[in-house]
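User: quick one - fold this with adenosine-5'-diphosphate bound?
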Amino acid sequence: MILMKDVYKTYPNGVTALNGINIDIKQGEFVYIVGPSGAGKSTFVKLMYREVGATSGSIIINDIDMSELKERKVPFLRRDIGVIFQDFKLLPKLSVYENIAYALEVIEESPRNIRKRVMDVLDLVGLKNKARFIPDELSGGEQQRVSIARAIVNHPKMVIADEPTGNLDPDTSWGIMRVFEEINAKGTTIIMATHSKDIVNTIKKRVIAVEDGMIVRDEHRGEYGYEV
Ligand code: ADP
Ligand code: ADP
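Assistant: Sure. Structure tokens for the protein plus adenosine-5'-diphosphate:
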């Protein structure tokens, strides 16, 4: 599913963000990525959806070798990957419904299928009654649930979330985690970069710790391992 061998990433300004990454993540796993700010967590997850490319080393995602993936084929890779951001990145002028439907319209689903799939996914995240609202009319937690709905409406094989609860209060964050656990129970791989000690130490999953661009810890049902 996600296989990285001796992966290095140096940005054009000369900063080396990743310094020899080796990892094997199987379909259906739930993985937290932890570590101090600037450790390389975001770069690590961005390699997984080809937001950035590696400087050297080998990366295989869903059986696709990233070194052989042509730029014009990247959208095909992304169909199997849902991405969730700390700042949601919703389109402000579109309704909740339209923000999610947009993800399906770009892959030419029929209107009937789009309607059914959008309403099903809104049901899953508990926002069926907010379909007509625009993002500004929703709380932060609700906006994040919309962004989760958008990420999963294509039934991706994996969901990558970069600090999804970073802007949310604790109660709201637990609600988001319940949605992730539900999606994961259906077989979706979850990769979540996080600074939440409470979440990592309570909902026990695989923990990969990154420091100075290297994996320093990889534990089944691990701990957060840093003071907050
Ligand atoms: P984290 O997510 O753990 O905070 P990042 O992957 O964002 O770590 O950053 C790792 C290092 O790479 C940091 O030194 C950061 O400043 C640098 N970096 C991140 N993105 C870029 C970029 N686009 N250009 C140059 N340097 C970057
Ligand atoms: P109904 O068909 O009775 O409205 P649904 O469960 O299908 O019930 O829809 C739930 C909510 O989503 C309703 O408020 C509905 O108007 C809204 N909705 C459905 N489709 C769209 C759409 N294409 N654009 C905006 N809102 C929609």
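One thing worth noting: The mean pLDDT is 95.
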